[in-house]
Amino acid sequence: MTGTPAIEARGLTKRYGSFVALDHVSFAVPRGQILGYLGPNGAGKSTTIGILVGMLSATEGNVYFGGQEFRRDDYVMRRRIGYVPESGGFYDTLSGFEFLQMAARLYHVEEKDAEQKARGFMELFELERVMHQRMSTYSKGMRQRVLISAALLHNPDLLFFDEPLTGLDANTALLLKDLIRQLAQDGKTIFYCSHVLEVVERLCDRVIILDHGKAVADGSMAELRSSTASTTLEQIFQELTHEDDTEARVKQFRSLLGSTA
Amino acid sequence: MKASAFPAESGASSFPSKIFSFFGVDEIQFRTLLRIGFLIDLRGSAQTATPGRSTDSPLKSSLILYAVYSAFLTPLAFLFPAALYARFMMFFGMALLGMIMLVDFGVTLVVPDDMVILAWRPISSRTYFAAKLTNALAFICAFAVALFTLPAIAGIFARGSTPLFFPVYLLSAILGAIFIAGLVAASYAALLRVFSAEKFRSAVNFLQIAMMATLMVGSQVAPRIEGRNAMRQIVNKQAMDSSVWSWWDLTPPRWFCAPSEMLLGGANRRVVTLSLIALAGTMALFTVLIRSLSLTYLQKVHGSGATNPARSIDQRPSLVMRTLMVFFPTSEGMVMFDLIRTQIGRDRQVRLRIYPMLAYMLIVLPFLMLAPASRGNEHINIGLLKIAPLIVLGLLPGVLLPLIPFAGESQGAWIFELAGLQNAASAASGIKKAIVFLFLIPLALACFAGLVFFTGAWQAAIWILFGLAVAILLLQVEFMAMFSGLPFTRKMPKGRVSGNLAYILIAYAVIGVAGALAYFVLNTPLRLLIATAVLFGAAAALNHIGNAGYQPFGAPTLSDDDEPVKLFQ
């Protein structure tokens, strides 16, 4: 299955009435690749990820995992997915330990193994001190660590991260980035959605930039640099998503502040 | 479509596994989801949780209050023959449980959090639905036990009863509760199949209103007619013949009473048939629910929770809201109205506290219904029945006001600490209007629908208006007494529960005086209309005085030592 992409989207389109959130987006991600998926707010990133993990249905187009079409009611294929959502995604009245146990049991991990795995992940992410406290008492970073653990503990081969570094301290962020690289080396395919361009630039093998529901760039950093006049991902992003007049907008913002003072 | 993403485990040949397999439910996932559901429900509010401590679930107090409520009704066992008592209680109990299920089902089965937590995992729609339904059923059964245990015990002492009445009646009542829960669940699941995900929420709202109205009217009218029959039976000193069919046998409470009737009056074709309908109907309902209606449930639930950019771009208030906005000239008033609406609509804990209080409020009705008529051949005292809306409406403010959250209890209360409240009078007015528009007026309409059968439209309208005037006056008085600070910002006093009961007792006294005056003195339409106008005038004056007493409070200000924040250097 070497030549078959691990994740493939063909002509993905999502419409809400007359509003087109995603407009015929296609890409293929080979096994073991880290794909950075970028775009301004409302560009269609979360919609894409929602369709890829089976939370949303596409108005048009299909998703394929390892060459096989992924349908939303295909629960066998869903076992291969691990997903870290951008926000929410946990029951705050449960403890982190209970939440991870639940996540493991939903994948039929034996009771004892589920407990071991939950404990192991809590220790790995330095949460053993609070593991039996409710998640409502956790900081944002602590919750994020639980969510990452919940996405990984059933050992999926397709990983979808939506802003995974949100709230993480510098050390945990470093740990996660190393972990993602290692996972990719182990043959897992990573779909990495983020606004933090520096991280995407350093971490991802390839980048897709989305704007107004359409893919406006797709390639490795070197390919993107050669196809545009820019040298950094930030500049490329600005150029492709028309955010090139930030100075003027800052001036406008300051004048607005002045008028209300 | 596969029922489970996982191969069958060893031990899958056991009886429970076969049942799960028959329904296409993944046993391990089902158990996991159910356990988590119970943990979440039985634990208190996440907001008030502190590390290492658990908070009390509102469930316990609700169960106690239901038991207390049912205790008030048990004296009926000494008035009615056992079979009629069983029917009467079953109507009330099932109507009440239906209301609980209706309002609570949305948050039990359609949990917005589930979307990002579970939607992408390999959980089939059937498994998810089965777990959520079982979770809801467990609660309904707990409520049914609280509501029916004392009446079942009292039923042993009813005329013509036996000690076996207790287990048979209680089990039938629990089965009835399961049935009514299934019926509401089936309605929701059917809606999910018919409507698109985006329209599901609106469809659910309309269904809730329609079913609630049916239940309200049903719970008012049906027991009255049952009660009239009961009175006839008592007057005629006749034993009830359980073999006679009636149109009422089409209603579910009659089916679930049939086993008790069989016990009391012996087996005959009618009670055997109705008992079989109760049993087979419940089983068939749940088989259809799990095997057919739940097929697309999870996907639809997820879809309904998904954001719809098109809606957010073109989001206008509904026609009802636009009409209501006329009554809210200030933004503070409208904000408070929305806050109350959201709080009661979405906060399960607030609603769990409301149900038993509402039940407590309705308790007066059966006693009024049973009051002997003073003249003629009437079996119901129509004169007293006219006062029923006054009692129900008058008690409502005292029941609702204490349920409005204290500081720290509401998720949105922090905004007042941060932003202050510049127009406190408008905010107070908004809260009162929320209670009038969201509760008093709908309840008045439901009372009207019940009363109109007995008095005609004109009389019913006058008496409802009078009841509404007393209720609004009480609302003003109780609001002034209870809220030294505004809701959401007021501090929780000690002895809160006993304090609430005191307000209800005061309301009882006022309603008693108003009811007696209406019954004995104001018993012509003209007098009643004049009294209504005077009461509305007094309420308006109190509203003005009360609202003016609320002082605005500002946002915390920076002290001189605080450095101003520099956005740009």
What would you say this structure looks like, in words?
The complex is a heterodimer of chains A (261) and B (569). Chain A has 261 residues and is an alpha/beta fold. Chain A has helices spanning 45-52, 75-78, 96-105, 111-124, 140-152, 170-185, 197-203, 221-227, 233-240, 246-260; strands spanning 7-16, 19-29, 34-38, 60-65, 68-69, 81-84, 158-162, 189-193, 206-211, 214-219. A six-stranded mixed β-sheet of chain A has the order 6-7-8-3-9-10, with helices on both faces. A four-stranded antiparallel β-sheet of chain A has the order 2-1-4-5, covered by helices on one side. In chain A, helix 6 links the parallel strand 7 and strand 8. In chain A, helix 3 crosses helix 4 (111-124) and helix 3 runs parallel beside helix 5 (140-152). The mean pLDDT of chain A is 87. Chain B is built from 23 helices and no strands. In chain B, helix 8 (197-236) runs parallel beside helix 16, helix 15 (348-362) runs antiparallel to helix 18 and helix 18 (388-400) runs antiparallel to helix 20 (424-455). The longest helix of chain B is centred in the middle third of the chain and has 40 residues, at 197-236. The A-B interface holds A 16-19, 21, 42, 50, 53-57, 72-73, 75-76, 78-79, 81, 83, 85, 87-94, 98, 102-103, 105-108, 130, 133-134, 136-137, 250, 254, 257 and B 1-2, 4-6, 9, 28-29, 31-33, 35-36, 39-40, 43, 46-47, 49-52, 113, 115-125, 198, 299, 302-303, 306, 308-311, 313, 567-568.
